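Hi R.,

Here's the chain you asked about this morning:
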Amino acid sequence: MKIYLVGGSVRDFLLSRKSDEKDWVVIDSSIEEMLSLGYIQVGKNFPVFLHPKTKEEYSLARIDKKTSIGHKGFTFDTSKHITIEEDLQRRDLTINAMAMDENGNIIDPTNGKKDLENRILRHINNAYKEDPLRLFRTARFYTQLSDKSFYICDQTYQEMRNIVNTNTYIPSLDKYISEVESLPKERIWKESQKALSTQNSYLYFEALYKCSALSKMLNKYSSVFNSDFKPILLKSESIKNSSNRSLNISAMILDLAQWSLGNMLFNTDEHVAKKCFIYIENIFGIPKVYIEKFNFIYEWIKNLDKINTFSPKDLIDFLVSISLWRNFETWDIAKTIILNYIEEYSLELDFPYKKLDNVIGLLIHFKFDKNEIQQIESKEAILCYIKQKRINTIAKYW
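And here is the predicted structure, written out as tokens:
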């Protein structure tokens, strides 16, 4: 048995970057031996083990063989004779195909170190296109390593396009399915949320657009084939420099919807816009918690041209309708999105964000007189009392 540190851990070590986790590959071993040493098997499709103390992942060296469509359409050989070089050859990118032994020696069968020095994201071989998830991973690495000026080489972009254009006939469905369409949305989200949790997340979507994956995913809307994708909000200065996932997700949905619909969202029929949002959210597998935050932001955008005309009563009605008291922590994100939206699209709108900051702060911290409320008999009367108190609180500031 021999154990190697592999993949991203080695890449990050050579780049002097912090690595969140360590992955290990074990050669010349077996399931039985790993279990006898106290490792805990967790892999269903191939043998992956957790170290009994560190809980880090240890995998038996393996080679893959494509057998069917999709990310999981592989069989695996984990025989003892498989070498570390063979295991590394099955990986996606050269910079992820290096290993380090216990003495610090680097095993680099695909010249990953050279590509690391030249800041190139390059696929290893033709097997790259067998796993559709790899194009999303490549786009994600392009984003995460943007601070080091990495770029995707032309040959790899072509392989990414090959994945997008690969279709397989499924007899049970009686139709052809693309490799991209076969991916579970949970897997797409896993890569997307990592990209959206870093600065320059717009690069992720630019890469997906350049390899035609984005058009394939949003092919329900003809606008995506008639115009270039431009991540207007994601690329705006105050958002592209942010690693706030909630902010980036909301900007992403708006950018993709703007492209898909081909017109300004606050002038788009609400039913049409929301149908598009749901389509995007489903394709990327965006969790409900982020969708709720986005819906809060969209309500502001939908009313951009009306807010300045609101009376104190209108404003309270609006803030209640969008559940401000449940979403007040999202207000700063909404404000950033809105101000960038107005600026980037050159809208002639006066958004009173300073007044709203003041009003929302007052409302969030306002406390009702419990003794007064206890003297009110009906629930309806209590709601009227609360509403009037809120109106009175903001009247002189709005």
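One quick note: The chain has 20 helices and 13 strands.

Cheers,
M.
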